[in-house]
User: Which sequence fits this backbone?
């Protein structure tokens, strides 16, 4: 089998869930629609070797209709190529053949607004040669009469089918249920906070079939606490955005992510938004340090996937937007990401792992109508 | 971790101390695009996708996103 037909699960460096994020102040139907196009150029590498490259155009549209409804949807296409690790930092593309994969995903969501609440129903379909995902979600929001407090309740499910291109696996299915409870509170005329609790429970195939000896538990529970705080600064007409996310994963790892963004309007309709993010995670219970395959026992869970190791990561980025007349906005964003074992907090970093770097560039245009 | 939780609790208390919910005519600044949590939907999706492909787990914003071959 040609190497370019294999390991596309690993190659899917960007294939991702078509999430349907909730807007902050969605207590009433939007009074205008929006259509947006964006293009992502992504690349990552480790010392002495390039890894994955991803090109990804996407399209999004949202429009109100019939007085109290909205419909929104997105389509994204990912074209991925390069090399991914078989274990630790040993790359699949060392032979020079590399891997390729493509993913197409679409989602749609319909929301009905009432005086004090709304209900939304959405669906997602994602296709890769070796991975098909179907997901649906129901979301209910209720807000107080003064519209300063919003409660969100979400329920979702996903059915995934994994079929590696180079081998047969037993029962390559994975089913997941998600639950969300969130509170959004306007604290003052210039401050708003949102806190979400989510719980995800899944059963099925979690191993990575393209990673050597990889064998993971067939059940996974993930608890997430996300809190975001936005503060408007009148003196600068700017917004300070803070975010903290904690995750407890039944695989054994815990993670914390801190985000800080400053959004600053400039003359001539420009808006600049620098962002800094720090992330740290502890290792999964079944992750074993090098040398490979130290710790491997037949029939027991094992991984040498560095994404399940203990490490810390820093992202610095900046987004520049230009607001034109008639609702047009053009934007350009650049992010640089670097991960190192020694940057882990709350746990010792996993030894023997090369630093990992990535950079991605987004260019987009949107129009409200 | 305990210090972190204590710091977050202190931040929450500070926020609560300045708790003065806006009147309807005071929400102009909160309604600005820069004060929304996910105003640029495609940007938020790309960012989530990138991190989900290289870190152990993600989530917290929504439910029912489905899976992928990236993690």
Assistant:
């Amino acid at each position: 089998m040609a190497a370019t037909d294999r390991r596309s699960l690993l190659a899917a460096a960007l294939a991702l869930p078509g999430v349907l994020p909730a807007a902050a102040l969605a207590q009433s139907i939007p009074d205008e629609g929006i259509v947006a196009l964006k293009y992502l150029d992504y690349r990552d590498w480790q010392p002495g070797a390039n890894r994955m490259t991803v090109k990804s155009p996407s399209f999004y549209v949202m429009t109100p209709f019939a007085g109290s409804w909205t419909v929104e949807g997105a389509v994204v296409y990912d074209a991925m190529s390069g090399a991914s690790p078989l274990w630790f930092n040993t790359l699949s593309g060392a032979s020079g053949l590399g891997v390729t994969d493509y993913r197409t995903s679409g989602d749609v969501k319909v929301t009905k607004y009432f005086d004090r609440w709304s209900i939304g129903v959405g669906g997602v379909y994602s296709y890769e040669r070796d991975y098909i995902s179907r997901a649906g979600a129901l979301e209910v929001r209720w807000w107080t009469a003064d519209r300063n407090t919003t409660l969100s309740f979400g329920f979702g499910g996903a059915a995934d089918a994994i079929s590696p291109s180079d081998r047969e696996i037993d029962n390559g299915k994975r089913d997941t249920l998600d639950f969300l409870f969130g509170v959004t509170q306007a604290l003052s005329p210039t401050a708003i906070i949102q806190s979400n609790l989510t719980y995800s429970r899944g059963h099925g195939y979690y191993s990575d079939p393209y990673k050597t000896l990889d064998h993971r538990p067939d059940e996974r529970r993930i608890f997430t606490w996300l809190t975001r705080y936005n503060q408007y600064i009148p003196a600068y007409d700017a917004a300070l955005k803070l975010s903290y996310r904690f995750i407890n994963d039944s695989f054994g790892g815990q993670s914390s992510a801190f985000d800080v963004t400053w959004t600053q309007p400039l003359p001539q309709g420009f808006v600049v938004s620098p962002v800094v993010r720090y992330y740290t995670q502890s290792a999964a219970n079944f992750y074993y340090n090098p040398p490979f395959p130290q710790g491997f026992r037949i029939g027991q869970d094992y991984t040498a996937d560095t994404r399940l190791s203990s490490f810390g990561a820093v992202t610095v980025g900046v987004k520049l937007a230009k607001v034109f007349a008639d609702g047009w906005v053009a934007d350009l964003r650049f992010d640089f990401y670097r991960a190192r074992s020694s940057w882990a907090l709350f746990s010792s970093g996993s030894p023997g792992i090369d630093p990992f770097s990535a950079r991605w560039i987004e260019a987009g245009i949107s129009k409200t109508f | 971790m305990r210090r972190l939780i204590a710091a977050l609790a202190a931040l929450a208390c500070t926020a609560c101390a300045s708790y003065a919910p806006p009147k309807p005519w005071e929400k102009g600044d909160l309604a600005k695009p820069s004060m929304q949590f996910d105003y640029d939907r495609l940007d938020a999706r790309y960012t989530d996708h990138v991190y989900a492909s290289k870190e152990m787990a993600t989530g917290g914003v929504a439910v029912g996103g489905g899976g992928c071959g990236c993690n």
